[in-house]
Amino acid sequence: MHYEDANGSGETHLQRLIDGESMARRKKIYEGKAKILFEGPEPGTIVQYFKDDATAFNAEKKDVIEGKGVLNNMLSEYFMNGLTSVGIPNHFMKRLNMREQLVRSVEIIPLEVIVRNYSAGTMAKRLGMEEGTQLPRPIVEYCLKEDKLGDPLVTEEHIAAFGWASQQDMDDILSLALRVNDFLSGVMYGVGIKLVDFKIEIGRVYDGDFMRLIVADEISPDSCRLWDIETGQKLDKDVFRRDLGSLTDAYTEVAKRLGVMPKGATPIARPTLIN
Ligand code: 5GP
Asked: What is the pTM of this model?
């Protein structure tokens, strides 16, 4: 009896069982809305497990979207490797399996760093702008990472006064955010997708006495707004937030265009019983 993936490239039922077993052996450090962090095999490493759970509006809307974790694991690997290739430091080390990746352990700065190229989402609402208006230049915003407060927008004054990051950190964070924006905008433009906005998180790492900041967490359609250039079709988490159709189809489209998944493949494991 074999379990075989229906399309030859997705997560098979058997693979899911094996990955699930390896996850059960790991020591859990933290469970978030979309990921679980486990202790890694070496000191200073972490295993990031991507769940299928989708949440929006500070977890008021929830669902399980089969295959989302696999897609985000692969897409985040693709984007982080891309950042590495252009010299933008980040936490990614290697993908371990369909749902897990090994990353460098960091001390997360408690800020969500948002870069916007077109108005959308909370900024469009806050400023009464039509969504999709091109901004005169990329705008960087900071939100405090605090679910209980709904991740409120904060200014550099708050960040400095409350000591969440120093002025030097903020200079480095701004530079990292804009470099990531240039890189990601170009990659997405190359496959006919407009990078409307995105969120990144930044972590501190220590090399001896030397501290530096690197991109951490994930980069995926969960944390970006991606619109098809021709049709304006949304290919990101707004599909879930706004009930616009299948989230898996949207993320699969992004993955296929980037060549992260072979054409014709789907990420969803459908076990097929063969005698
Ligand atoms: P907005 O502030 O318009 O809701 O979000 C701006 C951008 O940051 C969007 O691409 C959105 O997906 C991302 N973003 C904002 N907050 C979060 C968050 O808490 N989690 C994730 N994954 N992305 C976020």
From this structure: 0.91
